[in-house]
């Protein structure tokens, strides 16, 4: 599944490049007797897809606690909690404890509370997405990201993304969402049956396609933009082919701090995203960390310039769009291999590139 202003002086140059603008419902995990409880957890891991494994356990009273008479009856009943291999604390990467319905779907995630047993930090599904950023729950601090990220947090850009903005990518050689999805599916064949994370998913254009395919045990639509995730949720709710059991979750997270345990994800997709990441090297290193051995990473992005771009104007293009991390074909390969990925392949068409690599 991975997050301003537009000056008029650059509009002609952007057109030249055929680039688009380039653009608490709080939930507590503790019960009323949380100070007198001890969490005990155990987990099992499937040999091939550890990311999908969860096991319910119980909260039991502490050994030094003597329940009062009015609590004895309730103490005999276990409260089911899960330690899941799907989500992890973005601070310490410990698997999160989950209280609520199981499953990777909108309804179950919305009705669940998550807590890190090590940091004691809680996470909940507010504004229709699960917030797993480091700053989740902060009251007075709001981290401002670079312009390339902040642009897509705009309500207007989020609204327009699938209503004309994304279609403009065809001018730079993007073959279109349907063909891009088909191409990505070819690379993801070995990951079928596992968990796929669509990082920098935007409004969920590809997340929805992956979920509809029914080939994955769970699809996580992940983005840093709150408004993009609200659009994603809106599109899912309006799509009659989705129901409450569809295995898709909407999660807010930072691509450079992915909220998953190491080696727990089977596939990662990043469509038209790399050029917007503040640090492509940090992001791809995180992708490598969360992938299981044999896991697949597929991404698309804009090249700094196409193979047919005249050499005389290439320096001007780099200067005009210097706020974005437009890389070249060999640079993308270098970043992927340096971060620990292998078996790199790519397809180039004009300024469009689709690349793939896997975790050894």
Q: Which stretches are poorly predicted, pLDDT < 50 over at least 5 residues?
A: 1-79
Q: How many E strands?
A: 14
Q: What's the mean pLDDT score? A: 80
The coarse silhouette is globular
The multimeric state of the shown protein is single chain
Helix content: 25-40%
Rg, nearest Å: 22 Å
Task: Give the biggest sheet.
Answer: 14 strands, mixed
Topology order in helix (H) and strand (E) letters: HEEHEEHEEEHHHEHEHEEHEHHEE
Figure out the total of helices. Answer: 11
Q: Approximately what portion of the residues adopt beta-strand conformation? A: 15-25%
The helix-and-strand class reads alpha/beta
Q: Name the strands of the widest sheet in spatial order.
A: 1-2-3-4-5-6-7-10-9-8-11-12-14-13
Distance from N terminus to C terminus (CA atoms, Å) equals 20 Å
């Amino acid at each position: 599944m991975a997050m301003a202003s537009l000056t008029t002086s650059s509009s002609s140059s952007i057109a030249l490049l055929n680039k688009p603008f380039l653009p608490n419902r709080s939930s507590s995990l503790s019960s009323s007797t949380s100070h007198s409880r001890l969490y005990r957890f155990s987990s099992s891991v499937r040999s091939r897809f550890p990311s999908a494994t969860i096991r319910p356990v119980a909260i039991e009273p502490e050994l030094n606690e003597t329940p009062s008479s009015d609590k004895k009856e309730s103490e005999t009943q276990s409260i089911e909690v899960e330690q899941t291999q799907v989500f992890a604390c973005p601070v310490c990467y410990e698997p999160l404890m989950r209280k609520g319905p199981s499953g990777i779907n909108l309804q179950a995630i919305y009705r669940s509370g998550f807590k890190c047993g090590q940091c004691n930090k809680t996470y909940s599904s507010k504004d229709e997405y699960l917030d797993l950023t480091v700053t989740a729950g902060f009251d007075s601090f709001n981290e401002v990201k670079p312009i390339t990220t902040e642009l897509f947090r705009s309500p207007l850009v989020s609204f327009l993304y699938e209503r004309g903005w994304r279609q403009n990518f065809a001018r730079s050689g993007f073959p279109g969402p349907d063909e891009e999805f088909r191409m990505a599916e070819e690379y993801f064949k070995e990951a079928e049956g596992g968990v796929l994370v669509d990082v920098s998913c935007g409004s969920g254009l590809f997340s929805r396609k992956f979920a509809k395919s029914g080939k994955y045990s769970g699809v996580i639509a992940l983005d840093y933009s709150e408004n993009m995730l609200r659009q994603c949720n809106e599109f899912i709710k309006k799509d009659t082919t989705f129901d409450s059991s569809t295995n898709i979750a909407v999660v807010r997270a930072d691509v450079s701090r992915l909220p998953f345990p190491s080696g727990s994800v089977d596939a990662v997709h990043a469509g038209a995203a790399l050029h917007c990441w503040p640090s492509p090297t940090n992001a791809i290193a995180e992708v490598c960390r969360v992938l299981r051995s044999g896991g697949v990473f597929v991404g698309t992005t804009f090249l700094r310039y196409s193979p047919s771009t005249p050499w005389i104007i290439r320096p001007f293009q780099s200067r005009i769009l210097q706020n974005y991390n437009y890389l070249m074909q060999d640079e993308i390969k270098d970043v992927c291999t340096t971060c620990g990925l292998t078996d790199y392949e790519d397809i180039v068409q004009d300024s469009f590139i689709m690349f793939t690599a896997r975790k050894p």
